[in-house]
Amino acid sequence: MTVKQFFKSQAFKCIIVLLVIALIAGGLLAILNDVLYVTEEERTMRAIEKVYGQEMQYEEKQFPEEAYSNSYGSISKVYFLENGNYLVQSTGGEGYKGGTITVWVVLNFDGTSFKGIDKVVQESYEKQTLMSKLSYDVYSAHNDEVTGEVYFTTKDDGIKVVISGATYSTNALNNAVDCALKFAHEYLVENATQEVE
Amino acid sequence: MTGKRFKTIAFDGLLKNNPTLRLVLGTCPTLALSTAALNGIGMGLAVTFILICSNVLISLLRKTIPNAVRIPAFVIIIATFVTIVRMVLDKFIPSLYDSMGVYLPLIVVNCIILGRAESFASKNTVLDSACDGLFTGLGFTCALTLIGAVREILGAGAIFGVRLWDFKIEFFTSSAGAFFVYGLAIAIFNAVYSKVENVRRSKTFALRMLPKPDVSAPDNLDPDASGEAEKANTTADVTAKEVK
Question: Residue A159 is inside which H or E element, if any?
Fold first, then answer.
């Protein structure tokens, strides 16, 4: 096939048509992506609204690298809210099939003292198939005043037992909450004191 | 487009070729997103919008797109509209965007949309294709909402998020419950549809079976009787043409 024949062939027409469609679609999506882009601030505000039911001013806090993980899981975001509480996004492991659950935990502070957990709201999960078993009651079972370093467990040998029909998923949820609690005890109490000072 | 053509397309999309309950297409989102009636409406309307837009564009380009590359071209067009819907939902209705999860991008490979593009939009005019997209989408939305409502009422004791009572059977919110309700919906819909269709067919058959009068018979001289027989004959012929 000569070059001239190629340019007149059906194959060339196919390439051109597909290219034109892809280019127009790509251009349109690029423009729309710019117009409809959801910023990180907007996502954070949505998360706060999901937890509190209203928008609230916040300040993102930075901590040393080792603060973002502990024996229960990992912390990805920490926000200091205008009402003096902390909003922490934490991920707990050891769920069903080794999966994880990520939650937003509202840590209640009264000035410099850590009072307990105000609210636990699910953000996302991986590999968990029985999430429907984790009802509102299971999440709200974590809302409690905390005295000393007490953590949640699914086993009947702890003080704070939280369990549901999905034991492994509840374990991941407890780990996520415990991760936030440990972080609060180790870093936030000190930070809260500095904030007040 | 004539009124009759419009009625045929509407009847096909909503009932005769209902994608969920007659053709059993789009099963994946039907089973996964029918946990609540609102999810069903959201998914259904998203699919309807994409169906209309992709059908219109594919119909416009049907003479331009070479036959050999029609499927990749359709997929690019459908994927573009799905991405636009994703962006819009993420920006303006984040709760619905979150509840749809992975099933929203999966609309790209939804066989209802690709099926209508291939079998209808690539062969018909823009207006016909738009109507086909609208009614097929509405048929899908109605089916999803119906299944979602049944599962929500029985599984969560609520409808459209409004609590009705404390009684609930959790089986209906599980995957097994989804298969059960879906199967039941298909069975009931098809039983009712077949019944109605059989009645319609027997009426048509009875009309076709009307005896044709023998005009050459010497005793057939009564002008009134002859006129009635001719009328019946004409009706039977018209019905036969309609059936064909």
Answer: none
Number of helices (H), then strands (E), belonging to chain B: the values are 9, 2
What's the rounded Cα separation, in Å, for the pair A10 and B82? 29
Q: How far apart are CA A108 and CA A114, in angstroms?
A: 6
How many CA atoms does the CB half-sphere of B204 hold within 13 Å? 13
- Write the ipTM: 0.73
Q: Each residue of A69-100: pLDDT tens digit?
A: 888 888 888 888 888 888 888 898 888 788 88
Helix (H) or strand (E) holding A24: helix A10-35
Residue range B135-162: average pLDDT? 92
Residues of chain A with pLDDT under 70: 132, 144-150, 154-165, 190-197
Q: Global pTM?
A: 0.73
Range of the domain at A84: 42-196
Q: Please tell me which residue of chain A has the smallest CA distance to B173.
A: A132
Assess B71–A contact: CB distance below 8 Å, yes or no.
no
Count of structural domains within chain A: 2
Is the same domain home to A74 and A115? yes
Is the minimum CB–CB distance between A38 and chain B shorter than 8 Å? yes
Say whether both A133 and A49 belong to one domain. yes
